[in-house]
Design goal:
The chain is an alpha+beta fold and 209 residues long. It has nine helices and five strands; from the N terminus they run H-H-H-H-H-H-H-E-E-E-H-E-E-H. Strands 2-1-3-5-4 form a five-stranded antiparallel sheet, with helices on one face. Helix 4 crosses helix 5.
């Protein structure tokens, strides 16, 4: 599967906000957007073009896609499913993105960023309901239990994560057992549970053109 291989900090600068793609680094003075809060490229800091309605819609879609680490075609597939499903399309889309296993792992504190969560998932460090789960795009459902494998808990990486998780507060739709590094899905996510601002109606408008 294809993936973005460029400098991830450029994505934050392009969107004009922190996307927290590099975990703890994003909270330090090394964060690129704190040092260069303008778009990348030769004319980035001099560009004063008025953004069109289409431009606003596109930027919102790109922001969401980059935060969740989803490629263009996959994001489009999520939107199509959200549109076919009963309910409000924008809210359905948020649910699909938030319920991805890599996102849930990150939101529980079992990884320091969504990118790291994807890597750790593919390396088979977690289970869902006691079963192997090594596909980042798996969608969890209410009642599912996500757990760090017992063998993985002995690694330096997860020892560090367990120390950091003591200060972690998961979103209300997830229940976290910090001692046993176990999480449970207790409800469906909604916009109020997001950890970044998102105008999902702009994405719906973009795909409805």
């Amino acid at each position: 599967m294809a993936k973005y291989t460029g400098l991830v900090c450029r994505q934050c600068r392009r969107e004009g906000m922190k996307l927290y793609l590099k975990g703890e680094r994003c909270y330090t003075e090394k964060c690129a957007i704190d040092r260069r809060a303008y778009a990348p490229g030769e004319h980035g800091q001099y560009s004063r073009r008025k953004v069109s309605e289409y431009g606003l819609q596109l930027r919102e879609k790109q922001k969401a896609r980059r935060i969740y680490g989803v490629l263009e075609k996959q994001f489009g597939n999520y939107f199509e499913k959200a549109e076919r499903q009963k309910g409000i399309t924008g809210e359905n889309l948020i649910q699909f993105l938030e319920r991805r296993l890599d996102n849930v792992v990150y939101r529980l504190g079992f990884a320091s960023s969504r990118a790291e969560a994807r890597q750790l998932v593919t390396h088979n460090h977690y289970t869902i309901n006691g079963h192997k789960a090594n596909i980042p795009s798996i969608l969890v459902k209410v009642g599912d239990v996500i757990q760090v494998k017992e063998k993985s808990l002995e690694s330096p990486k997860f020892i560090e994560l367990k120390e950091n998780i003591a200060h972690k507060t998961p979103p209300e739709w997830l229940d976290l057992d910090k001692e046993n590094m176990t999480g449970r899905v207790i409800a469906l996510p909604s916009k109020e549970h997001l950890d970044f601002p998102l105008e999902e109606h702009l994405i719906v408008e973009l795909y409805s053109r």
